[in-house]
Amino acid sequence: xxxxxxxxxxxxxxxxxxxxxxxxxxxxxxxxxxxxxxxxxxxxxxxxxxxxxxxxxxxxxxxxxxxxxxxxxxxxxxxxxxxxxxxxxxxxxxxxxxxxxxxxxxxxxxxxxxxxxxxxxxxxxxxxxxxxxxxxxxxxxxxxxxxxxxxxxxxxxxxxxxxxxxxxxxxxxxxxxxxxxxxxxxxxxxxxxxxxxxxxxxxxxxxxxxxxxxxxxxxxxxxxxxxxxxxxxxxxxxxxxxxxxxxxxxxxxxxxxxxxxxxxxxxxxxxxxxxxxxxxxxxxxxxxxxxxxxxxxxxxxxxxxxxxxxxxxxxxxxxxxxxxxxxxxxxxxxxxxxxxxxxxxxxxxxxxxxxxxxxxxxxxxxxxxxxxxxxxxxxxxxxxxxxxxx
Length: 390
Hints:
This protein is α/β, with parallel strands linked by helices.
């Protein structure tokens, strides 16, 4: 019997992107009457993207507007120090649900309230670690050692520690002396899984469209996309961006060969990529202070990228998670460690013109993705963890 599970965290659970999609897919088949979701982030999930039939509550963040000003690090630091206490609003949001266990994601500060709630009720709590928290740059540098201690104590005390990559499992075991379990992002249990190559590639089309699908949470990611667009412009290439980014928010994307399409539901996104695109772009440049995340946080977009049947082009340092993935599974992607426009242009030209290389990369990525990111595998790991350790 699965436990009555109370989710408390900043990450909204919805059918959209990144950690939100990971959680949505993981919980899509969880018994509705045994689950309550309390979202503590600034932006709650959108109703039409939520898990059907599940009770959702939202506890708004305090001082939300100040988090988008020059005082952001100070405000986030204050919020972190206060998050270890369960607020009255959070207690109210949990009323009427007799939880057996607590689930949280170690992003933002809401997870600290989840741990405090579980400890106060003497409930087991389960951590999902998608990004590096203690080494992140959202708080004052003077609190770095305190953040490490807070995270270490919570990590060791968890009933289970589900990490998004083997590199994270290994790094956290070295740092905190507690073993974790790898839980890769997964495809949707009810989504379409395509067979073979995309129709364009299978037909031998020689198009020149590159796509990036996802959000751009840092300026480094915006710059990586601008750089790619500049590299492919002389080749007649276009960059199509699917996601929440806008030109108004990121003027650097206002380039003649960049088209911003907006955010699509996952199945619609995969269909668009299969029918309109020739290469999938995966940048792993997260920006200053995010080196740990580049190494440890596995790119969740690979779950859908590997379902498309197109070649994947990765740019990032040699130790980034996507580069490590390629070394573990040679031939799943073409990887470039240089940021030089000329080097990027040479790679993309090769992919545009060498159809055999493009087919080989696409076939290998499809085979590895079908094996690694199957929804049933992730669900089994998650359910087994909850039932064995709750």
